[in-house]
Amino acid sequence: MDKKLLKEILDVSLSKGADFAEIFIEEKQTTGISCEEKKIERINSGMDIGAGIRVIAGESTAYTFTNELTKEKLLEIAEVASKVAKGSKKNTSLDFTVPSPVVEFDIEIRPDQVNIDDKVDKIKICDSACRSVDEKIKQVSVGYGDVLQKVTIANSNGVFVEDERIRTRFVCNAIANDGKSIQTGFSSLGGTRGFEIFKHNDPKDLGVEAANRAVLMLSAEGSPSGKMPIVMAAEAGGTMVHEACGHGLEADLVQKGLSVYANKKGEKVASSAVTVVDDATIAHKYGSYRYDDEGNKGQKNVLIKDGILENYMYDYLTATKDKRESTGNGRRQSYQERPIPRMTNTYIAKGNDDPEKIVKSTKHGLFVKKMGGGQVNTTNGDYVFDVAEGYLIENGEITKPVKGATLTGNGPETLQMIEMVGNDLGYAIGTCGKEGQGVPVSDAQPTMKIKELIVGGTLAATDKQISRDFKIKRI
């Protein structure tokens, strides 16, 4: 779409005197393949095309969208959106400028140029490897997905961006049954990569990892309960930082008074060993991008530095309210939704401690090797998380596997109780849900020692599945 037409659309959007107008145009091609019971159950492929127009006038926002990309239809929805304002027409002289991105992503093998049979082969390899681990593996599901998204973003401040985002993901879920107990194991990979993701990750390894976790949990004892020290492995993923801290640092929740971190800039909110970062510019991570969905450059934002709260995550609207610049965190699920502040790749930065020494310094406690899902009340910071794979720590050694453990605590209090931070870093991927919108994210942490948390468990743990509406869906 040429700049002349974009300017005309924005002029109509501003015709009633609005302060700001924006158009977001999207063409998204998706492929999804799933395998269950050794059969390819579904192969879905499709294209979604449309545009959304946002108009802001004072405290009011109008958002309209269409999947009909004709000049007439776009001008029509621009006229509808313009009615949010009740003022005089503003004269605009737009000189669209393209900001230089901080990071580039080299795609070696575009997924749209890979035969569907080659994608199916990766699934079959993973499925076979998973089933071969142990006869107790009774069910296996494997999924592959890729997304190719082209966007054009222009606004009345003169921003103009054309971008292509490519992401690939792969997941395996194994169910083990020994006649007395049923347990699950899960593994995944994903990133801003093309099909070359399999050059760096063997699908066999994912299948074996998922199966081993499921089989291991069959023989695990029920987790003890009560307050105890916690050591979280780097490979546990950053579910805790994402939920217990990250959402509370999104500026819209802060401004609405729905965050425990509101009005605490400059205050000590964590142990001095803790630095929390949100970074959209890490090459090939699942939450990375060149530009956010408002056309701002992806950025590295230090949110908490040495325990001191330094910054929140902003989109254009929340940044305007606080009279500052966006941090490049404006994201949306598709052209049908308005952008809101969202995390990208959020992590606790590496420390100086040896992970092995962290374990040895713990006389007794729980070692969390892999986290499950979780949920948080951002208003007060209270959270609860499932432990997908955990072990007892006895006399400074990792010993028996345990199942049925949950971690309960308060985000700010937990950050204050982090005593040691390892020099390693492990990532997990997921789809983060907020206000009905899901966006790809990753999160990470080093090996960490937390003074004590409440562990929920039972020495006679059952296999009853507890259903929750998790904010982050592990994929």
Question: What does the model show?
Answer:
The protein contains ten helices and 23 strands. The protein is an alpha+beta fold. It has two domains: 111-150 and 164-220, PmbA/TldD superfamily (PmbA/TldD fold), CATH 3.30.2290.10; 222-474, no CATH class. A seven-stranded mixed sheet has the order 11-10-9-14-21-20-23, covered by helices on one side. β20 and β21 form a beta hairpin. α1 runs parallel beside α2 and α3 packs parallel to α5. The two termini are 35 Å apart.
What's the SSE blueprint?
Blueprint lengths: L2 H11 L6 E17 L2 E19 L2 E7 L4 H12 L33 H16 L5 E19 L4 E18 L4 E10 L5 H4 L2 H16 L2 E2 L3 E7 L6 H8 L4 H5 L20 E4 L20 E6 L2 E2 L6 H6 L8 E2 L8 E2 L3 E4 L6 H6 L3 E13 L5 E13 L2 E7 L2 E5 H6 L1 E4 L4 E9 L2 E9 L2 E9 L15 E3 L1
Parallel strand pairs: 7-17, 8-15, 14-21
Antiparallel strand pairs: 1-2, 1-4, 2-3, 4-5, 5-6, 8-22, 9-10, 9-14, 10-11, 12-13, 15-16, 16-17, 16-18, 18-22, 19-22, 20-21, 20-23
Helix pairs in contact: 1-2, 3-5
